[in-house]
């Protein structure tokens, strides 16, 4: 089932080096009363360096689990994930993770929050400070360094968390429905900024979302997931050059992709 | 309640509002206390209440003054101060250490929790006579009693604070390959500070209770000891004087704890609401 899709996907990636290879990965949870629940089943996908890949699926379908497995935070029950050819067993620390909520530390200033990964990596203080100023400028928060998170709006907090993820110049950024809690207008702006950041940094981004329009607008390719147990139903390449202006969201071309993605999602009531 | 109001006005950037709220709540306190003392004086004079039942405020002031100029109170004051602060510090250190153990190590929780619950149900002051037997009539037994009583609210708050930590912050730290020690120092410890300070505020009060109860049971020095001596001598203004000095210790300790809390847990206060 996933095999044919995988072949298509690989064709898309001819000539591009793979950063991540997800190979037959599944995850089965055992509940407290001993029942086992299969959240993810036999997922195969390869993610190229510099690619923007969305994982699109209904809520609670296990797409976050897949992302956490790529991050090394959750161990797959079957299959293997390779990062730069090496199997992922622990958190590799080379990936910046952005969660649905900003997960900032309220006792730290904006700049101190962004410096956190550098502290853990024992980066020298002056280098850390400089880097945090740079990434805060990149996410559009210049001048907010000494503010505390509870002085910021939800959208700005999420920008801080993106800056934190970028602070170690990771070649991989994993985002778990990062804009799900934001209002529609903020969300549009964040999508535009994320597109700019992804092109400027050249980082590989894996982006979990349940918004069809968001996935289509941002991605090089969209992975459409089925409901439980979650597996890849199709991988749809969005063949529109990036950067894409926000008006493109309403274009016919984008509309066709959105319709296609919706059909794939609705198939068998997923 | 007043605490939150004061804090929010400090955070707002208009100094006028700060001065107004602080000024008015302090002013209110001064006004009511003057009224209360005046009423007390009037009632005593009016109804000719005998001094050995309720001395007039003027008598109490005279007793405080004579305690100060003769220096009689100083040694008792210092002894009780050391007992209360000593007990408090011991309780804080042990509360954080054992609380962290119980809050973070599952096996420690399984072993420790039944004892904790059992101990919680015992009125700790009832153990004080035993502690005097074990630790003597000196200052040690008072510190131990004060510490034991102050320890429990601190411990319980630390455990609660650690167990209610936002798990996503830990996952974030794990994604950064942080060590358990780094997770403790950078997430768990700062995150539980609001709980710790709630425990410390209660602990400060309990420590004073412990020290005084232990002095009541057996001591040669200390304000509690002095209160008993003066009560026996029917020196009621003297008892009031000792009480005033005792409350001074309590107020100082409470102020210190709240000052520290304000500096370290400013981020957990409710957000400033619309101007009042």
Structural summary, described in words:
- Helices cover 36% and strands 24% of the residues of chain A.
- By secondary structure, chain A is an alpha/beta fold.
- Chain A has 2 domains: 2-94 and 171-269, P-loop containing nucleotide triphosphate hydrolases (Rossmann fold, 3-Layer(aba) Sandwich), CATH 3.40.50; 100-170, no CATH class.
- In chain A, a hairpin with a 5-residue loop joins strand 1 and strand 2.
- In chain A, helix 3 (110-120) packs parallel to helix 5 (154-166), helix 4 packs across helix 5 and helix 7 (212-218) crosses helix 8.
- The longest helix of chain A has 18 residues, at 184-201.
- The model of chain A is unreliable at 1-14 (pLDDT under 50).
- Chain B is mainly α.
- Helices cover 82% and strands 0% of the residues of chain B.
- Chain B has 11 helices and no strands.
- Chain B is globular.
- The A-B interface holds A 71-73, 90-93, 95, 97, 99, 101, 103, 105-107, 116-117, 119-121, 148-150 and B 166, 168-169, 171-178, 182, 186-187, 190-191, 193, 264-265, 267-268, 271.
What is this structure, in a nutshell?
The complex is a heterodimer of chains A (270) and B (276). With 270 residues, chain A is α/β, with parallel strands linked by helices. In chain A, 36% of the residues lie in helices and 24% in strands.
The helix fraction of chain A, in percent, is 25-40%
Greatest interface and its participating residue counts: A-B, 23 and 22 residues
- Would you tell me the structural class of the helices and strands of chain B? mainly alpha
Separation of termini of chain A?
16 Å
Order of helices and strands of chain B: HHHHHHHHHHH
Under CATH, the topology of the largest domain in chain A can be stated as Rossmann fold
Q: Supply the CATH superfamily name of the largest domain in chain A.
A: P-loop containing nucleotide triphosphate hydrolases
Tell me the radius of gyration of chain B.
23 Å
CATH topology of the largest domain in chain B, which one? MetI-like fold
Structural domains of chain A: how many: 2
Question: Can you count the beta strands of chain B?
Answer: 0
Mean pLDDT across residues of chain B: 87
Mean pLDDT of chain A: 86
Number of helices of chain B: 11
According to CATH, what is the class of the largest domain in chain A?
Answer: Alpha Beta
Low-confidence stretches of chain B: 1-13, 271-276
CATH homologous superfamily (4th level) name of the largest domain in chain B: MetI-like
CATH 2nd-level architecture of the largest domain in chain A: 3-Layer(aba) Sandwich
Structural class of the secondary elements of chain A?
Answer: alpha/beta
């Amino acid at each position: 089932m996933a095999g044919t899709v995988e072949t298509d996907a690989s064709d898309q990636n001819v000539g591009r080096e793979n950063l991540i290879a997800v190979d037959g990965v599944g995850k089965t949870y055992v509940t407290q009363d001993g029942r086992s629940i299969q959240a993810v089943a036999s997922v195969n996908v390869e993610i190229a360096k510099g690619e923007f890949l969305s994982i699109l699926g209904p809520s609670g379908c296990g797409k976050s689990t897949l992302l956490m497995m790529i991050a090394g935070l959750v161990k797959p029950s079957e299959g293997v994930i390779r990062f730069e050819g090496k199997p992922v067993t622990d958190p590799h620390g080379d990936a910046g993770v952005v969660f649905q909520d900003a997960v900032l530390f309220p006792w730290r200033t904006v700049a101190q929050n962004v410096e956190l990964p550098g502290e853990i990596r024992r980066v020298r203080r002056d280098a850390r400070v400089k880097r945090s100023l740079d990434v805060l400028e990149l996410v559009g928060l210049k001048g907010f360094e000494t503010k505390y998170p509870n002085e910021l709006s939800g959208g700005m907090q999420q920008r801080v968390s993106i800056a934190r993820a970028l602070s170690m110049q990771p070649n991989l950024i994993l985002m778990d429905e990062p804009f799900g809690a934001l209002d529609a207008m903020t969300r549009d702006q964040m999508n535009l900024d994320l597109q700019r950041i992804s092109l400027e940094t050249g980082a590989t981004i894996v982006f979990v979302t349940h918004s069809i329009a968001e996935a289509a607008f941002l991605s090089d390719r969209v992975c459409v997931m089925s409901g439980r147990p979650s597996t890849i139903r199709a991988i749809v390449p969005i063949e529109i050059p990036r950067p894409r202006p926000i008006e493109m969201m309403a274009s016919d071309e984008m509309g066709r992709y959105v319709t296609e993605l919706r059909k794939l999602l609705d198939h068998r009531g997923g | 309640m007043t605490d939150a109001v004061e804090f929010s006005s400090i955070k707002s950037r208009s100094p006028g509002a700060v001065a107004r709220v602080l000024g008015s709540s302090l002013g209110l306190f001064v006004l009511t206390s003057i009224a209360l003392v005046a009423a007390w004086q009037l009632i005593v004079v009016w109804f000719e209440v005998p001094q050995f039942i309720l001395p007039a405020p003027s008598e109490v002031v005279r007793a405080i003054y004579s305690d100060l100029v003769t220096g009689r109170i100083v040694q008792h004051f210092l002894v009780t101060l050391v007992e209360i602060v000593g007990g408090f510090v011991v309780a804080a250190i042990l509360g954080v250490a054992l609380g962290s153990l119980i809050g973070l190590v599952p096996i420690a929780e399984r072993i420790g929790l039944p004892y904790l619950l059992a101990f919680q149900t015992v009125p700790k002051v009832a153990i004080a006579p035993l502690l005097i037997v074990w630790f003597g009539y000196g200052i040690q037994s008072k510190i131990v009693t004060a510490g034991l009583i102050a320890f429990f609210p601190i411990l319980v708050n630390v455990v609660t604070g650690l167990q209610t930590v936002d798990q996503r912050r830990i996952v974030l730290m794990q994604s950064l390959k942080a060590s358990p020690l780094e997770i403790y120092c950078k997430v768990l410890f700062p995150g539980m500070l609001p709980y710790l300070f709630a425990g410390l505020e209660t602990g400060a009060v309990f420590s004073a209770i412990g020290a005084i109860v232990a002095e009541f049971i057996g001591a040669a020095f200390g304000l509690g000891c002095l209160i008993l001596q003066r009560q026996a001598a029917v020196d009621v203004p003297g008892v009031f004087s000792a009480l005033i000095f005792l409350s001074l210790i309590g107020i100082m300790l409470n102020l210190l704890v709240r000052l520290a809390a304000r500096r370290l847990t400013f981020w957990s206060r409710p957000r400033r609401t619309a101007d009042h």
